Amino acid sequence: MNFIVIVSDSFRFDHLGASRDTANLAGPANSGLGPIQTPNLDRLAAEGTLFERAHTGSYATVPNRYELLTGRYVCTYTRGWEPLPPHEVVLAQVLGQAGYTSMMLVDTPHILKDGFHFDRGFTAWQWFRGQESDRYRTDPIEVTLPCAPHKLRNPDTTVVQYLRNVSQRRGEEDYFAPQTLGAAIRWLEGNYKRDRFFLYVDTFDPHEPWDPPSHYVDRYDPGYDGEEVIYPRYGEIDILSEAELRHCRALYAGEVTMVDAWVGRLLEKVDDLGLRDRTAIFFIADHGFMLGEHGWIGKGRCPLYEPLNHVPLLARVPGMPAGQRSRAYVQAADLMPTILDLAGVPDPGTTHGCSLVPVLRGEQESVRDVCVSTTTLVQRVSAESPVSRAIPGGLRSMIQLPGWAMLYGPEAEPQLFDMATDPRQEHNLWPARADKARELWEAYVSWLRSAKAPEHVVAPIVADRRFTHA
Question: What is the DSSP string of 258-283?
Answer without folding.
Answer: HHHHHHHHHHHHHHHTT-GGGEEEEE
